[in-house]
Fold this protein.
Amino acid sequence: MRDGQKDVNVLVHKKSCKFTRRQRLLKTRDYQSVFAQPYKSSDRYLIVLARENNLVEARLGLAIAKKRIKLAVARNRLKRLIRESFRQQKIASLDYVVLAKNEANQANNQVLLNSLAKHWHKLSRQCKKS
């Protein structure tokens, strides 16, 4: 590849990996519906709530409280990790809301990614059963 040319495969891959607006919970009523009657999965780091959404793709909402994660840098790191995990997983078409617990602040990235993978899998199974 010469200077100035871009690899088409790299561009296609980058575009397909974005966290798009359609994959986000945007409205208050979307969050309220998840909080109303959720399927729940929790561990020492995170609480993940889910609810069926009757859409083609899964959507994600983040509720990372300043009360739990004090520093903005830490909250932003946690949000990035959650979005990245959500984007990479092949998960059921549900609405998800992720809440942080105090211990999420001290956990390293790999521990949090493993935790999230378990949550996505558990909630997908729970919703299929019902």
